[in-house]
């Protein structure tokens, strides 16, 4: 069916609606829906044809004459996709606005159909004046719809519409003048004809006039994109119109206008691409910054829409280097934006209040939360959505062409955008809902149509990407399958999850080399063991399993990834999964936010590094991770630096550590061990891979591994130091993790055989004891109802198993023989003896004993000392929380006695990289070139001495009598209140007096200042938007003049 | 003649723009826009005007055969017709807005409609 | 595993010798200290008397399992430390159980007793015990730092972590002792030594005079006996390590007795001369005076 019928059906049905009786509203509505359905079907059929056959675009001649003597339309792949988007948006919006349309009557419906028709017209037409006409039609239709659909019926939308009309008048004046002079210079109104004439050289005496004319046309059409900062007039519409219409305004109008800009760029040629880029990137960054302080949901979405449009404009401006990829990239971002934004606007109708926090009402409806997650992930460009693939491609090409400043700006804007989106999601999940969700079944249809479209687009873009389609990867599918199982009870899903991970491990374990095998065991088997604790949860536990399995899927894919794409995709997956998981904690909203922002920031660095690396070698569809080693100066150290910082955000190196304590401490009982014991290892795995492939690198004469050595040492010291001042048991453990990761990083950065073995020892040990301690402390917190250690005390007799786990844990962490921590210390000493540098060791030496301080505090203030009255009746932690702890205790014992079982294989593997310094595992003794160590003998000797003395004490002290709690010798008083007798609060006061200067929150203050600056800058800029339509028109004119001046400057 | 028309057209556009930017009264703004619109139309006509030719109407006065040499460019005139129609539509819409705004607030001052901002 | 079972009776012998030597030596030092303070002091056999008295006490209570095990941990730590280090250089008989591990094992095993003891004392629920432990841990974390650096320096110097080999490298006259070949490390270690000997100015941890404060507050009778035994074994074991690392080790028991006595006397000497530091003061003192020496010794070795 000819594409002309899209226009014809639109116009025809609008006229038909006009002929109807005012009372036949049902019929009118049916006609509207039918018209939009037919229009969508025409577009869809064309899209199928073009997608399936790859046919050339078809020109449709309107007056039976060839252009330029008549207007021609063109239908091609892009046009069909865009018109389908527009028509479907229109159809779904009509469904969404059903009630409202029925109330307003046939005129509103006619205006809606006209608007959609005109948007399709903008996409289809190849005539510049026709373009103007369609734009004017949209202005009138928009004005009409806004007038008819005053959302709150308080006149706000009407005043917004008037502002819109004022600026539209200026735009149309510019556009008309531009068109007539362009016509004068070229003698045609046909876009392709004009492009041809310009391309073949325009007459010199007309060249200046034409470029001025083109500027006017260009700026007028660009203005339809609402570029920052000349966009106050459009924002008010976003905010005040009916959300059903705002969805069209955002998704369809923006897309059509972008395509119009693309057509103009065809005329303007390469000269105008930088202008488009400049306007686009300023809009992207500026609008995202201004979205940051917004509190009105629809206005925020408006800013976000403008930002996304700016990004696509930037991409259109980069088509000189993007070439054939332009379509894939711009399309991916545009469709992701359009679908998500339309979905969010429709969703906003279900929320009664216009504040971001009001969205907490959605909490009660998991399906709507899922819809929100889908849309937010699409906007943030997360896998497996189209924006992700597009971002990957875009960053690679920009890096290859050396447009690094632009790349940095794009990533910065994207980070800001992710910041406000995830902050919003945090409100949605964590704030108290103050009212009910109001929605009917019909209104839900468009939202879920958008959700489905989002996932479908993700699939399509995955197929088109030339990389592996993430939606066909088994672990991810397994994780997503839990979305469909949300109705099932938690124990069922837990069994399935454990079974899935163990099965996958058994199927694949033969594929890993020894190093990866260790990580594989920790991720899959370790994950399964930790999940045992999740059996304690009752009910359905909605949201937990998809998130947890997404994280595990990401980690599994990470170790299986061979190319940079797979690596980065899995990195993002595990980041997102763990974010959702962390967000489940009761008070974790701000911490989850800082986690995701730091993680995404780190991920962007990794992405940039991969892109730089790929740019440095001959083009290939994929870039194997192993090829990182082939990089040479000058790019290699930069790649190293970016990757290292990216991975270090995950291991919470000092400076980028501030997200960790809150995130790990506020997470749920069984989530803390997952994100601490297991997830942190992903960062270490990254560092391992980095150092294995790239080795030592130096930048400006500074050895980067040496810098890393210092960072590791400082992290170890400060992490431990901060841990000792915590009152909150889980925060203490979290800071301890920072310190432990510092040790591991330090070991890696030593760049010798034993250093790496040390790091690996930390990987294993930290997984075991930190998982165990978090579970144990979590169990205690569950029973006592607090995490403040000073409120506990004397729980040893009530929770003996938890106590044993903690005891074994702290002995292992502290490195005291005979448990497994000692092995790490022994390897450490041997490793540093061959290290090149000695000074950083000083910090590590200091960090070691400090660990005793917080470990003792942990066990003393919880389990020893005075039992509180309110805790006298509490029971041992639930069985399912104890069980994994006991497994870990057994594991620790095994690793302590036969560390060689695991380590000797890795030792041999590391010899590939560092042949020097391997340990000798013959016999019972482990020997290095400096010393020796016999774990079995140590265990036996210590055991025998201990038992001998214990027997002796039992013999001489057999009649010892158990006394009550307060039966203690005291300074002339008899204690009776545990609270005043339990010495626990501010436990290390003298230490704070002496060393407190080291733990001032400088880093926290630094990042707070950064975010404050961003907010302040945004708030100051916001004052430009003073609400006055005349001022907005003035902004627009200033914008035009500024762009003109800059263009002439260029 | 053509240059004079074009200069007048641009002058009208500037007057209209100036009026739209400086008058706070909604109705005055609309009038300013119509002035600017007229200016635009004048400019379009002026661009299409060619000295010494006749109107692009193919009737007994102008034969179809030599029309290309004798008539002025018809396209701008066609465009102007469309532009005028659209201009009327937009003006009507704006007037409808003003009516509605006045109904809600009893004010015609653009500065009274700034509750949406930031 | 071919284990020489004769090592077991030899180990017992070492422990026996050291316990008796320790009883007498610490009493002697006490007496010297008292004389320096113009007091008469205790009789030389006082420790034996105390032991008999403590074992003989009939009242005996317990606050719980960890409380009970505390002294066991403590003494196991002391005995283990003694046995993991060879006492007499060149003597197979008194090389003890050093086959189990090298210097690093000994260093980390020091904490075994400390930790167990702290746990036991903490279970008594006595706030003074906990206060004593926080003070002790705070102080030791900084006091150990110069020692750790000195050990690192010595290990770098001799390129080994084996105590026997370190002693072997110092044979051949007094001038080949680490004391003279690496004086900075020894200086740092000796300052650190003061901090770990529970003597003034660093004895606020157990604050024996004013109030009954410190970890052992609640311990009595046979518990106290075990801990007293440790109080004599542990310093000797620790000094043996110092002797081996810095002062040429000992090739026979009399040499060991003499060196240990002199080293112990050093801490007692400083103790009678200086008043007591508060914890934060001692932390700062180690940071300012001992740590730079340690850093220098690492850099310069």
Description:
The complex is a heterotrimer of chains A (1050), B (118) and C (301). Chain A has 1050 residues and is mainly α. Helix content of chain A is 71%, strand content 2%. In chain A, β5 and β6 form a beta hairpin. The radius of gyration of chain A is 32 Å and the shape is elongated. The mean pLDDT of chain A is 92. Chain B is built from 4 helices and no strands. Chain B is elongated and about 60 Å long. Chain B is mainly alpha-helical. Chain B has a single domain, classed as Helix Hairpins (Orthogonal Bundle), CATH 1.10.287.3510. In chain B, α2 (26-48) packs antiparallel against α4. Chain C is mainly α. Chain C is 69% helix and 1% strand. Chain C is built from 11 helices and 1 strand; from the N terminus they run ααβααααααααα. β7 of chain A pairs parallel with β1 of chain C, so a sheet runs across the interface.
In short:
Chain B has 118 residues and is an all-alpha fold. Chain B has helices at residues 2-22, 26-48, 67-70, 74-105.
Distance between the termini of chain C: 38 Å
How many helices of chain B? The count is: 4
Q: What fraction, in percent, of the residue positions of chain C are helical?
A: 55-70%
Mean pLDDT of chain B: 88
Radius of gyration of chain B: 19 Å
Task: Summarize the SSE layout with pairings.
The complex is a heterotrimer of chains A (1050), B (118) and C (301).
Chain A: H1 4-19, H2 25-53, E1 58-61, E2 72-75, H3 77-96, H4 98-104, H5 106-124, H6 128-148, H7 156-186, H8 191-199, H9 204-223, H10 232-240, H11 243-268, H12 273-291, H13 297-317, H14 319-322, H15 326-348, H16 366-380, H17 386-400, H18 404-430, H19 441-464, H20 474-484, H21 490-508, H22 514-532, H23 544-560, H24 564-583, H25 589-616, H26 635-651, H27 659-666, H28 671-694, E3 698-699, E4 702-703, H29 704-724, H30 729-749, H31 753-784, H32 800-814, H33 821-833, H34 839-863, H35 879-897, H36 900-910, E5 926-927, E6 932-933, H37 935-956, E7 961-962, H38 978-981, H39 989-995, H40 1002-1022, H41 1029-1049
Helix pairs in contact in A: 1-2, 1-5, 2-3, 2-4, 2-5, 3-5, 3-11, 3-15, 3-19, 5-6, 5-11, 6-7, 6-11, 7-9, 7-10, 7-41, 8-11, 9-11, 10-11, 10-13, 11-13, 11-15, 12-13, 12-18, 12-40, 13-15, 15-16, 15-17, 15-19, 16-18, 16-19, 17-19, 17-25, 18-25, 20-23, 21-22, 22-23, 22-28, 22-31, 22-35, ...
Chain B: H1 2-22, H2 26-48, H3 67-70, H4 74-105
Chain C: H1 7-36, H2 46-56, E1 61-62, H3 65-84, H4 103-123, H5 127-158, H6 163-169, H7 178-181, H8 183-196, H9 221-246, H10 253-273, H11 279-300
Helix pairs in contact in C: 1-9, 1-10, 2-9, 3-4, 3-9, 5-8, 5-11, 6-9, 8-11, 9-10
């Amino acid at each position: 069916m000819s594409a002309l019928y899209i226009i014809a059906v639109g116009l025809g049905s609008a006229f038909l609606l006009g002929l109807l009786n005012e009372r036949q509203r049902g019929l009118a509505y049916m006609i509207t829906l039918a018209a939009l359905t037919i229009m969508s079907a025409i577009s869809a059929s064309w899209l199928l044809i073009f997608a399936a056959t790859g046919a050339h675009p078809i020109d449709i001649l309107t007056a039976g004459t060839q252009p330029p003597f008549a207007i021609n339309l063109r239908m091609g792949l892009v046009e069909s996709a865009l018109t389908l988007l527009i028509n479907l948006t229109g159809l779904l919006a009509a469904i969404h606005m059903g009630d409202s349309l029925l109330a307003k009557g046939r005129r509103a419906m006619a205006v809606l159909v006209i608007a959609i028709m005109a948007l399709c017209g903008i996409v289809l037409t190849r005539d510049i004046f026709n373009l103007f006409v369609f734009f004017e039609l949209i202005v009138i239709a928009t004005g009409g719809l806004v007038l008819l659909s005053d959302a709150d019926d308080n006149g706000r939308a009407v005043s917004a519409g008037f502002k819109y009309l004022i600026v539209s008048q200026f735009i149309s004046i510019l556009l008309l003048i531009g068109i007539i002079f362009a016509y004068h210079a070229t003698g045609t109104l046909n876009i392709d004809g004009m492009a041809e004439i310009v391309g073949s050289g325009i007459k010199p005496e007309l060249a200046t006039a034409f470029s001025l004319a083109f500027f006017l046309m260009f700026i007028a059409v660009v203005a339809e994109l609402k570029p920052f900062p000349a966009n106050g007039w459009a924002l008010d519409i976003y905010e005040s119109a009916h959300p059903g219409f705002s969805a069209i305004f955002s998704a369809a109008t923006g897309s059509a206008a972008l395509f119009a800009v693309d057509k103009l760029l065809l005329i303007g040629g390469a000269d105008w691409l930088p202008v488009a880029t400049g306007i686009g990137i300023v809009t992207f960054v500026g609008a995202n910054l201004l979205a940051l302080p917004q509190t009105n949901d629809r206005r925020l979405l408006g800013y976000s829409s403008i930002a996304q449009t700016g990004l696509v404009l930037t991409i259109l401006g980069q088509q000189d280097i993007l070439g054939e990829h332009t379509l894939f990239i711009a399309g991916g971002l545009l469709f992701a934006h359009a679908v998500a934004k339309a979905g969010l606007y429709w969703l906003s109708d279900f929320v009664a209040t216009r504040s971001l926090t009001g969205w907490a009402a959605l909490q009660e409806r998991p399906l709507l939360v899922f819809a929100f997650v889908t849309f937010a992930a699409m906007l943030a460009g997360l896998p497996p959505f189209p924006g992700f693939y597009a971002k990957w491609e875009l960053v690679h090409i920009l890096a290859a062409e050396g447009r690094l400043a632009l790349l940095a700006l794009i990533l910065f804007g994207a980070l800001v955008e992710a910041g406000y989106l995830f902050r919003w999601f945090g409100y949605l999940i964590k704030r108290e809902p103050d009212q009910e969700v109001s929605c009917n079944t019909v209104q839900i249809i468009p939202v879920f149509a958008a959700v489905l479209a989002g996932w479908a687009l993700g699939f399509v873009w995955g197929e088109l990407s030339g990389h592996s389609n993430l939606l066909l990867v088994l672990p991810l599918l397994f994780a997503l399958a839990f979305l469909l199982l949300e109705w099932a009870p938690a124990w069922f899903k837990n069994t399935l999850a454990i079974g899935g991970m163990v099965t996958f491990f058994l199927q694949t374990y033969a594929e890993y080399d020894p190093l990866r095998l260790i990580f594989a065991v920790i991720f899959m088997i370790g994950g399964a063991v930790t999940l045992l604790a999740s059996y304690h949860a009752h009910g359905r536990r909605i949201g937990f399993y998809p998130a947890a399995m997404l994280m595990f899927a990401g980690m599994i894919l990470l170790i299986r990834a061979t190319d940079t794409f797979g690596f980065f995709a899995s990195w993002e997956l595990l980041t997102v999964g763990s974010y959702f998981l962390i967000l489940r904690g009761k008070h974790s909203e701000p911490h989850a936010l800082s986690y995701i922002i730091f993680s995404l920031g780190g991920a962007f660095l990794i992405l940039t590094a991969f892109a730089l690396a790929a740019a440095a070698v001959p083009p290939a569809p994929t870039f194997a991770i192993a090829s990182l080693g082939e990089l040479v100066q000058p790019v290699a150290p930069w790649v190293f630096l970016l990757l290292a910082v990216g991975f270090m955000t995950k291991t919470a190196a000092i400076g980028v550590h501030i997200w960790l304590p809150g995130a790990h401490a506020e997470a749920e009982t069984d989530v803390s061990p997952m994100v601490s014991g297991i997830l942190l290892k992903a960062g270490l795995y990254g560092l391992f891979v980095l150092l294995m492939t790239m080795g030592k690198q130096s930048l400006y004469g500074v050895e980067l591994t040496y810098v890393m050595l210092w960072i590791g040492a400082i992290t170890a010291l400060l992490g431990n130091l901060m841990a000792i001042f915590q009152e909150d048991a889980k925060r203490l453990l979290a800071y301890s993790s920072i310190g432990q990761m510092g040790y591991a990083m330090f070991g890696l950065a030593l760049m010798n055989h034993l250093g790496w073995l040390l790091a690996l020892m930390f990987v294993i040990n930290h997984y075991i004891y930190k998982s165990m301690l978090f579970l144990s402390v979590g169990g205690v917190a569950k029973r006592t109802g607090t995490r403040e250690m000073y409120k506990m005390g004397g729980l040893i007799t009530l929770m003996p198993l938890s106590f044993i786990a903690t005891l074994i844990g702290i002995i292992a962490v502290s490195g005291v023989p005979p448990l497994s921590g000692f092995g790490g210390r022994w390897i450490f000493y041997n490793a540093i003896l061959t290290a090149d540098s000695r000074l950083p060791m000083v910090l590590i030496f200091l960090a070691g004993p400090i660990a005793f301080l917080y470990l003792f505090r942990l066990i003393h203030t919880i389990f020893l000392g005075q039992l509180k009255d309110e805790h006298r009746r509490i029971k041992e932690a639930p069985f399912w929380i104890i069980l994994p702890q006991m497994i870990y205790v057994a594991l620790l014992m095994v690793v302590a006695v036969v560390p060689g079982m695991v380590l000797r294989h890795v030792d041999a593997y590391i010899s590939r990289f560092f042949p020097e310094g391997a340990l000798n595992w013959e016999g019972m003794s482990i020997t290095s070139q400096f010393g020796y160590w016999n774990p079995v003998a140590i265990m036996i000797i210590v055991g025998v001495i201990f038992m001998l003395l214990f027997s002796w004490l039992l013999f001489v002290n057999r009649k010892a009598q158990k006394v009550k709690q307060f039966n203690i010798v005291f300074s002339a008083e008899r204690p009776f209140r545990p609270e005043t007798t339990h010495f626990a609060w501010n436990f290390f006061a003298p230490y704070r007096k002496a060393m407190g200067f080291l733990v001032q929150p400088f880093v926290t203050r630094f990042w707070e200042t950064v975010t404050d600056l961003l907010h302040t800058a945004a708030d100051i800029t916001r004052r430009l938007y003073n609400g006055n339509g005349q001022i907005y028109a003035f902004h627009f004119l200033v914008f035009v003049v500024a762009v003109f001046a800059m263009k002439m400057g260029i | 003649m053509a240059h004079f028309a074009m200069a007048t057209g641009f002058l009208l556009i500037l007057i209209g723009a100036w009026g739209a930017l400086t008058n706070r009264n909604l109705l005055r703004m609309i009038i300013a826009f119509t002035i600017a619109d007229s200016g635009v139309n004048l400019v379009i006509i002026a661009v299409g005007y060619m000295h010494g030719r006749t109107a692009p109407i193919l009737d007994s006065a102008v034969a179809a055969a030599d029309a290309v040499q004798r008539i002025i460019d018809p396209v701008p005139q066609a465009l102007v017709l469309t532009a005028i129609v659209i201009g009327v539509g937009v003006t009507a819409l704006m007037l409808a807005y003003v009516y509605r705004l006045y109904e809600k607030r009893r004010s015609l001052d653009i500065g009274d409609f700034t509750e949406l901002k930031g | 595993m071919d284990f020489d079972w004769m090592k077991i009776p030899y180990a017992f012998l070492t422990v026996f010798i050291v316990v008796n030597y320790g009883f007498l030596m610490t009493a002697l030092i006490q007496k010297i200290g008292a004389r320096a303070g113009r007091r008469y002091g205790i009789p030389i056999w006082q420790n034996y008397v105390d032991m008999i008295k403590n074992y003989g006490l009939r009242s005996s209570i317990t606050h719980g399992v960890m409380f009970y095990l505390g002294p066991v941990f403590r003494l196991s730590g002391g005995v283990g430390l003694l046995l993991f280090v060879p006492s007499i250089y060149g003597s197979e008989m008194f090389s003890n159980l050093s086959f189990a591990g090298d210097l690093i094992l000994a260093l980390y095993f020091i904490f075994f007793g400390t930790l167990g003891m702290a746990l036991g004392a903490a279970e008594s629920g006595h706030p003074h015990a906990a206060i004593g432990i926080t003070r002790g841990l705070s102080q030791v974390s900084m006091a150990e730092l110069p020692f750790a650096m000195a050990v690192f320096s010595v290990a770098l110097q001799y390129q080994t972590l084996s105590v026997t080999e370190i002693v072997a490298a110092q044979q051949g006259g007094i001038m080949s002792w680490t004391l003279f070949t690496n004086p900075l490390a020894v200086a740092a270690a000796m300052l650190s030594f003061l901090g770990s000997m529970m003597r003034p100015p660093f004895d606020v941890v157990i604050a024996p005079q004013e109030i009954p404060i410190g970890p052992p507050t609640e311990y009595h009778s046979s518990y106290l006996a075990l801990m007293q035994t440790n109080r004599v074994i542990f310093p000797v074991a620790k000094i043996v390590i110092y002797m081996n690392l810095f002062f040429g080790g000992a090739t026979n028991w009399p040499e060991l007795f003499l060196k240990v006595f002199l080293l112990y006397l050093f801490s007692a000497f400083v103790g009678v001369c200086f008043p007591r530091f508060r914890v934060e003061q001692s932390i700062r003192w180690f940071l300012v005076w001992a740590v730079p020496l340690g850093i220098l010794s690492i850099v310069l070795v």
